[in-house]
Automatic annotation (TrEMBL):
Belongs to the CBP3 family. Residues 35-170 form the Ubiquinol-cytochrome c chaperone domain. This is Ubiquinol-cytochrome C chaperone. It comes from the Bacteria. Signal peptide: none annotated.
Length: 185
């Protein structure tokens, strides 16, 4: 029997889908919305998902092979789910492609902004981009707790290996620990 080169390994597909589900669960923790101010809206949930996917992708970039392949499969899974969600909402084919392009631009723009701030260790800069993108407001002080959470999540992920990530999902801190994070002056 000839193996179809375009067909994915089903065990790998299931593993990627399980990782995606775990990331989604991390992005839906109520404390993100109740304690850290992420708006509980469709846009807010998209922003929280993007943020958590970016954190996992950052970690995967630090790991040896096959992490790069897993990262690409994860991005594909996330965008396939977004496409499916738009279709379930009744968006037509032409509308889906236009919206998917905008979502992809938003995702990659946010990834670049979060990466730059995290790579520089700039928690204040991270708070600025999180205030604008995730909280949809210019109040940087309101985003300080979220920025501290993101920095802690990034550091925690850096300490895990690929096997743990795939088996258990991302080890994320409790967002409620960062509620009322003191403002910097």
């Amino acid at each position: 029997m000839i193996r179809n080169p375009f067909r994915r390994d089903t065990a790998r597909t299931r593993a990627i889908e399980a990782l995606h589900v775990r990331i989604n669960a991390g992005a839906r923790v109520p404390a993100l919305y109740l304690d850290l101010g992420v708006p509980d809206t469709v846009e807010g949930r998209f922003e929280a998902l993007c943020l958590h996917v970016v954190l996992v992708l950052r970690h995967l970039r630090r790991l040896p092979a096959p992490a790069a392949d897993i990262a690409q499969d994860l991005v594909n899974s996330v965008f396939e789910q977004l496409d499916s969600s738009l279709r379930e909402l009744g968006v037509g084919d032409m509308g889906v492609s236009k919206r998917m392009k905008k979502l992809a631009q938003a995702f990659y723009g946010r990834a670049a902004a979060y990466d730059a701030a995290l790579d520089a260790g700039d928690v204040d800069g991270l708070a600025v981009v999180l205030a604008r993108n995730v909280l949809a407001r210019e109040d940087v002080d309101a985003a300080r707790g979220l920025a501290a959470y993101v920095a802690a999540a990034d550091a925690g992920l850096a300490a895990s290996d690929l096997d743990a990530l795939m088996a258990e999902g991302p080890a994320l801190p409790d967002p409620s620990r960062f509620a009322g994070h003191p403002a910097r002056g």
